[in-house]
Amino acid sequence: MPDxxxxxxxxxxxxxxxxxxxxxxxxxxxxxxxxxxxxxxxNIVLGYPVGDQREGLIAAIAAAIAEAGVSxxxxxxxxxxxxxxxxxxxVERVPGISNIIAVASAKGGVGKSTxxxxxxxxxxRDGARVGLLDADIYGPSQPxxxxxxxxxxxxxxxxxxxxxxxxxxAAMSIGFLVDNEQPMIWRGPMVTSALQQLLNQTxxxxxxxxxxxxxxxxxxxxxxxxQKVAVAGAIIVTTPQDVALAxxxxxxxxxxxxxxxxxxxxxxxxxxxxxxCGHHEDIFGSRGGAEMAQKYQLPLLGQVPIDPRIGRLLDAxxxxxxxxPASAHARAFVDIARxxxxxxxxxxxxxxxxxxxxxxxxx
Length: 363
Ligand code: ADP
Hints:
Elements: H1 4-13, E1 16-17, E2 22-23, E3 30-36, E4 39-45, H2 54-67, E5 74-79, E6 97-104, H3 112-125, E7 130-134, H4 142-145, E8 164-166, E9 169-173, H5 188-200, E10 207-213, H6 220-228, E11 233-238, H7 242-258, E12 262-273, E13 280-281, H8 288-295, E14 300-306, H9 308-315, H10 320-323, H11 328-345, H12 351-355
Helix pairs in contact: 1-2, 3-11, 5-6
The site of adenosine-5'-diphosphate has 19 residues, from helix 3, strand 12, strand 14 and helix 9.
């Protein structure tokens, strides 16, 4: 009969991670079993925050340990342990930011900003330190969606800008710095440098995740950004419609080209169910995002139905995840956020970041 430590370890390893659909053992989670004065403890390092799934997970782990015939009491601990994950080669990281996640869409109006803001708030509510960078220089929508329209960030040294805060998220947008009535007539290089300034001259502090709401499209500009900003992973938002999908495929190829892993696909506006009569209509087709995910062997992070409340709440600066967290539409975004963070946690850890820069000195 194996010893208690191995039995606890094996039992915990078989428990399913609900956000990955595989076991802790398959996800190679660190499972640390210790005993002190006859009291056994197990700590599982998840690699991302699980929010209100914690209780259910602890119950599932306790049941698995009991089933393995361990009769001694075992204290169960779950640690988020969010690491900094690998980025493209040769791109400098922003100090203090562990992981930059780009939210992209190849086409405007598919709900990229909607996903980005709800994702950021969901991760913050789960306990992570989160920032949101509105990189949609031509059409910044995050100031409105966060309820920060008309606010101006401050700078005490004239160099670094303090981000604004809303719903637990540190936010920066070109929309905070320029008149929103003014059209943005900028050329590519100016946009790229404006974006790099917003990224590098904001005092983000220590962040586990910085969500970047990219401009729509896959032109030179997006490609340059994907090459210059140290991104740990990208999320592609699409509707189930064919045109949006053809564009989303281009988005996937762009990230592939620059070595940024795509964490998964979000299918937004996937069907509408009438609140009065219950009739369901697939207004923009059905399952397109799911099929694309299958084709490229990418995770389908979630499908968000059309719900007029999503837009209404955003227009009021109260994203659903913050203002109606128990609603079905908010839960859809929370699930997407956890799956995205869970898939990022499977990526290699950036060892360079752990050990700092190595400087070789002569003599
Ligand atoms: P993008 O960033 O791709 O241009 P937005 O996030 O700005 O798109 O969304 C476009 C519009 O669609 C916004 O008015 C937003 O409120 C609305 N919207 C996005 N997703 C949904 C949804 N699932 N249901 C209803 N309205 C949505």
